[in-house]
Design brief:
7 helices, alpha+beta
Length: 232
């Protein structure tokens, strides 16, 4: 019995350590993006611009990656066809079998029509919304600094840009301070009618742990399953 309790205690301690393991992100913009991720004592620079490009424009990023590797893929494919004709035939047969099988979307259309598709889209949107909400509420921001000096030489243009920026920025600021845990926050947003150009600086240090990611997955999974059962 004592051995079992010791093993259980060790497992609980390990589970606690894993769930408390966090990754710290430092994102800085000062005439260029700089992003550093740190896990325990390991730090690594990442190219945020490429990640954002992939997230916001996945088709364009995929085309670029495909263009870079196109020649290698063609050569590899040709070699495989020449060396393994039987394997190529098996792959072709499997592909034809997959084409004959209906995918999940086609099955929904056949069974429930457009109503089924609308219900699926609604379920996915609700699932994504719950996941994002849980993630935002769980983020811990240690430091956030924003600096925007609006210049350009033309007073009317500067005033218009400053008004537009304030219209977007302050609602976002209110949302961040009311929805997230923020330790330090500072900003400087001002027009400068003699500055030849605008200046922007941004820095955020935040962390995300394994427990939060697990909570996001569980929350999203629960919402999806509940909606799926309701729609049956």
């Amino acid at each position: 019995m004592k051995v079992f309790l010791i093993i259980l205690a060790v497992l609980l301690i390990l589970l606690f350590l894993v769930l408390s393991l966090s990754a710290e992100f430092t994102i800085v913009y000062d005439n260029g993006w700089s992003t550093v991720i740190r896990v325990l004592f390991i730090e690594k620079d990442i190219e945020l611009s490429k990640i954002l490009s992939f997230v916001l424009f996945p088709e364009k990023a995929a085309e670029q990656a495909k263009a870079e590797k196109q020649e290698q893929k063609e050569e590899t494919k040709q070699q495989e066809i020449e060396k393994e004709p039987e394997k190529s035939k098996e792959i072709t047969d499997k592909q034809s079998e997959k084409k004959e099988k209906k995918n999940y979307i086609s099955k929904i259309i056949d069974e429930d029509g457009i109503v089924g598709i609308m219900l699926l889209i609604s379920n996915l949107l609700q699932t994504a919304s719950s996941a994002v909400t849980t993630l935002i509420k769980g983020l811990h921001i240690y430091s956030l600094y924003v600096k925007m000096i609006i210049g350009g030489g033309d007073a009317a243009d500067i005033g218009e840009k400053y008004g537009d920026i304030c219209g977007f920025y302050y609602p976002i600021k209110g949302f961040i301070l009311s929805s997230m845990k923020v330790d330090m926050y500072d900003d400087y947003i001002q027009p400068d009618f003699i500055a030849p150009r605008s200046e922007y600086e941004f820095q955020v240090i935040m962390s995300i742990n394994v427990a939060l990611l697990l909570r996001v997955l569980l929350r999203a999974g629960r919402v999806f399953l509940v909606n799926l059962i309701k729609n049956k």
